[in-house]
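The records we work with from here on pair a chain with its fold. A complete example follows; check for yourself that the lines match position by position.
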Amino acid sequence: MQVRGYGPYIAGAALGLVVALALSAGLGLSGTPQLLLFAVLPALGGAVAERLVAARR
């Protein structure tokens, strides 16, 4: 099993988490909207980063 292949997904998920933190703090979200934001953005960021890296290979 190669762990190196997960790098782009992990980096994108981390970036998505940072964006979720910034949006949550900036918009003052709490409760369900905040939960959805933290559920969707890291997964979306990881998927986008993984596809971008795969397209460049």
Observations:
- The helical segments are 7-27, 32-56.
- Residues 4-56 form one domain.
